[in-house]
Amino acid sequence: MIDPVVDEQWVRAQGDAVVLADVRWYLDGRSGRAAYQEGHLPGAVFIDLDTALARPASPAEGRHPLPDPGTFAAAMAAAGIGDDNPVIAYDDAGGVVAARLVWMLRSIGHDAALLDGGLTAYSGALTTEVPVRPAATFTTRDWPADRLASLDEAANGPAVVLDARDRPRFRGDTEPVDPRPGHIPGARNLPCRENVGADGRFLPVEQLRERFAEVGADGSSEVISYCGSGVTACHNLIALEHAGLGAGRLYSGSWSQYSHTDRPAALGD
Question: 69-78 pLDDT, tens per residue?
Fold first, then answer.
């Protein structure tokens, strides 16, 4: 399987052998599809987070529960992504949204990676031309249980639990979307947006390893990652794998599920 993070030079060398996927999405309600239509990487298809990478939101499952495997497979096939097409995904936020698609594909054994730096670091000209790719065959595969963690495992298990949200949300200083502030007791804060530098590119591997080690994820213990709704948590899992520290597990319900329960919420650092 390819490395979970690749650069523009690597992508250019592959030519048409890879499919570029634009996975822009915005918590503030802006349209990722509209942003794609205004300009995207040449040849890139648009993948909609809300319809292709998640089921409808509910208090019981959170804001972005994983989609039914058949729905996901159909969305990939309709976008022209087949079983043999490596996928290189990007966004305009250091990969924190596009990581969801990459994690989902890699979890079922499909070659996929984040484009390091994404749209903001791309050196070429953008286009408004929408590629026409023929429908492909994408085999339906169940989400592997060993790559997922339940609410109980995130709350009570022996794993190192990482919260990918920004520090103010982790501390409970603010909570813009979920019913109550705070974090899962015992979780450690590793803001995913700090995995990258100002240019949107990932920090050097040694720096990533140091970041993970500071919160107890040094490769010796199982890691569970969560965030607000199970999207940006995938960025920490991609960074973990890129740093050579294992695969980790996703708690997909994340805070948007946990905060609807009567379980305790921790505040502060």
Answer: 999 999 999 9
